[in-house]
Amino acid sequence: xxxxxxxxxxxxxxxDLEKRAAILQAAKQLFPExxxxxxxxxxxxxxxGVSKLTVYSHFVDKERLFIEAVREKCAEQMPFELFDxxxxxxxxxxxxxxxRAFFALVxxxxxxxxxxxxxxxxxxSGKLAQMFWEAGPQTLxxxxxxxxxxxxxxxxxxxxxxxxxxxxFFCLLKGELHARQLCGCSAAPITQLEIDRHLTATVxxxxxxxxxxxxxxxxxx
Length: 221
Prior knowledge:
Tetracycline Repressor, domain 2, 221 residues, 12 helices, globular, Arc Repressor Mutant, subunit A
């Protein structure tokens, strides 16, 4: 559980923390499987092994629980520490670590299922899609933009429009491989070698566009 989640859980007793974690775990499982409308607070409570009153005591309503479940999923696979800048280390390695974590997140079974539900309209309203965007992708993009800003200040990168560059990086990382998964192209399963080559090529492409002259030395030919 990330620190922000622990802070907002009320009294903070160990039992409360355990119940909150169980509720979030249930929500992370049920929302991608059944969508927002198809998941009830009763079902979440039953799977978590708590009462519905306990669910509401930790989360005001189902919308808040959905938002926290999305945030928790992102924080699990892309902890904020991932965006800490280490100016003493190669920026390529830092970008590769972020790339691997992001690709694993967006291609996870839960993310693919939830994406399909939201884009087909089966997951709820446009308001729900906006909540998902703000709690997940937008938050991660803002954290990455902060990472890029600090790298620019350290002289590792030269970027005029940092927010646009952050969006470009994540879009490039999804690429064809993510599109194939969304389409359910199981006839040609994606291999780890294919993923590694895709992520490496994306990072190299990004560095060729934005690496400063000082850090550009050593880019692959």
